[in-house]
Design goal:
heterodimer, A: mainly alpha, globular, B: alpha+beta, Rossmann fold, OB fold (Dihydrolipoamide Acetyltransferase, E2P), elongated
Chain lengths: 272, 383
Amino acid sequence: MNLITRVLLLLAAAIYTIIAGGPLVWIADMSLRSTQEILANPYGLPSAPQWHNYAAAWSDASYGVYFKNSTIVVACSVTLVTLIGAMAAHGLARYQFRWKNAVFMLLFSSILFPPQLTIIALFQMLVEYGLINSLVGLICVYVAIHLPLTVYLLEGFFSQIPQDLYDAAKMDGYSNYEIFWRITLPIGIPAVATTVILNLIDMWNEFLYAVVIITDDEKRTLPLGIMKFLGDYQTDYALLATGLMISVIPVIVLYALFSERVVRGMTAGAIK
Amino acid sequence: MAELTIEHLSKRYPNSSDFAVDDVSLSVPDGEFMVLLGPSGCGKSSVLRMVAGLEPISSGTIAVDGRIVNDVPAKNRDIAMVFQSYALYPHMTVYRNMAFGLLRRGISSAETKRRVDLAAESLGLTPYLNRRPNALSGGQRQRVALGRAIVREPKIFLFDEPLSNLDAALRVTTRNQLTRQQRDMGITTVYVTHDQVEAMTMGHRVCIMNGGKVIQVGVPLEVYRKPADIFVAKFLGSPPMNVLETEISSEGGRTTVRLGNVNIPLPARGPASLAVSQKRVWLGVRPEDIHGPVPADMAEHVVSVEAKVLSVEPLGAETLLFLALAGTGQEVTARIGREARASVGEAITVSVDLRALHLFDIGTGRAISNGWSSEAGIGGAAG
C-alpha cells in the first residue's frame, strides 16, 4: 500500500470515527457538567467534573430502577430467544418434515413487516391477557419480535454443520435432544454469541414497544427513563446525558469484549 | 462378533422414482472383512447407512446374528462406523472424541480411560490425546476416527470410504494398518469404497454393486479373473479390460470368433463353446494378457495378432502400449514388460493368451466364459 492510499484511508477512518464517536464524547462531556454550564456553552469542557451527577441520576432520578428493569427484561428475553431460537434453528436445519418450507416462509415474512404494523394488535392482545404494563408482557413481545431473525441467523450456521457429525453422534448412542445440547450448541457457539450480542444491544435500546406497553414509572426500562428528562417546557440536560451514559456504557463494554466473536460468527464458513 | 445378513434390501428416496438400492441380498459371516465396491451412486453407501440405522429401509431385512434390526435405532445396534469425512467433533479433544460413545453407554471412567489409552497406543495417538481435531493432520484424524470405533468394541464395523481423503502414500500405510487391526480384532466389517486397489487388497470378499444391485460377490482374485459380467470386467483392473464387439462366424465346419485379423476357433467343450449360438459377442482380454514376444512355454496357448502402435507409455516397472488391431482397427491396451521397445506407428505382432479370453453376451453383458482351458480343446471343431 503506498503512502497516499494509506493517508486517504486513515483520513476516511478518522472522519468516520469523529462522526460516529463525536456525539458519544459530547454526551460523556455533558454528563460531567451542570445544566446551567451546558446551556451557557454546549460544547465546552467541564470546569469541575460533576461526578455526583451519576449518583444523583442513579438514586434520585431512579436510573437504578430503570437499569434493574432493563437488565431483567433483556436477560430473560435474550435467554429465551437464544434457547427457543437455537432449538427451532436446529430443527429447521437438521430435519426434513412436511410443511417445512411453509414454516420457514411464515417465520421470515414477519421480518419484512415494520414493527408499527403490529403495535395495535399487540396492545389489544396484551390487554386481554393482563400483560399490559408488565415486564413479563414486554419480555413476551421482545422474544416474539426477535425470534425470526435469530432463527434465520442460527439456521444458516447450523445447516453448515456436516450431517456426518450428527450421524456419528447417533452411532455413539445419543438421542436427537442430546445431540442438540452436545453437538449443535457447542459447535454453534460463534453464531449463538453473535445473536446474543445483537439481540442484547437491540433490546437494551428498544423504545417503541416499551413506550406502548409500560406506563408505570417504576416499570420503565432505561430508554423510557431517559425520556422522563425531556420535558415539554424544561429539559435537564445534565441528567439526560448522565442517563444516556448509564444506558450506553454496558453495551459498549459488552461489544468491546465480544466484538471479535461477533465478527467471527457473522463471517464463519463451513466447519472443517 | 456377529454375522450380518441382508435380505432383499431396497431403498427408494423420497421424490425419486428409482431404487437407490434394489433387492440386495448379502451375508457377511462372523469376522469377515467384506468390501462393497462400485462407482459413485451405485448404492453402496446407502446399504451401509441402512445397516448402521441412519437411513430407513424401504423393504427387505437386515439381521445381526439372526435378529432383525430394521426398527432398532442406530444407537442400540452396537455398530460402529467410520465416516469418509471422519466426523470428529471439532469442539472436543482427541480423548473426548474417542470416549464420547463410551460415556453415553455408562461405561466407568476407569474402563473408558483404559480402552482409549489402549486404542491410542496401538494407533500411535497417545501424544495427541489432548489436542483438538483441527490441530491434527489428515492421517491422524483418520486414526482418531478409527480409534473412536475401536474403543466401542462393537459387533460390526462399518467403513464409508475412510481413506479417500488421504494422500496416496498415507493411504497405503493406513490401508495396511486398518487390515491388520481388523484381523487382530476379528470384528465383522463392511467396508465401502470405489477404489479397486482397496477392494483387492483389504477384503476377504468383495461385493461389486452397480445401479443399486449386487452384480457379483466373491474372493477378490476370483472376481478379477472371472467377472460375472462386462461391468465387473471393465470396473476392475487398471487399465481396464479391453472389451471388443466382435462376430462369431462359421467356415469349414469351424466356429470362430474374430480378434483383429485373426479368427480364433471356439473350443469344442466348456462354457466358451456356448458362444456358438451367438452371432455377435463381446470379447474381453486384460492388458496383461497381451504379450510382446511369446514365451516358449506359452506357445500353445496364444494366438498372434498384428497391430499398429498408437502410443507408448513407459511407466518404469512396465510399459503400456496403445494398439490398433489390424483388420478391424479396434483399439486395445497392452501391458508389456519394461524391456519392450516399440515406437509410435510401428506395426508389431502381439500374442494374446487364449486362456485369459473372456466372452460376454452381447445383449445382457453376462459372462459366457472366462478363459478357455487347453483341456477344452483349443482350435477344436465347433459343434
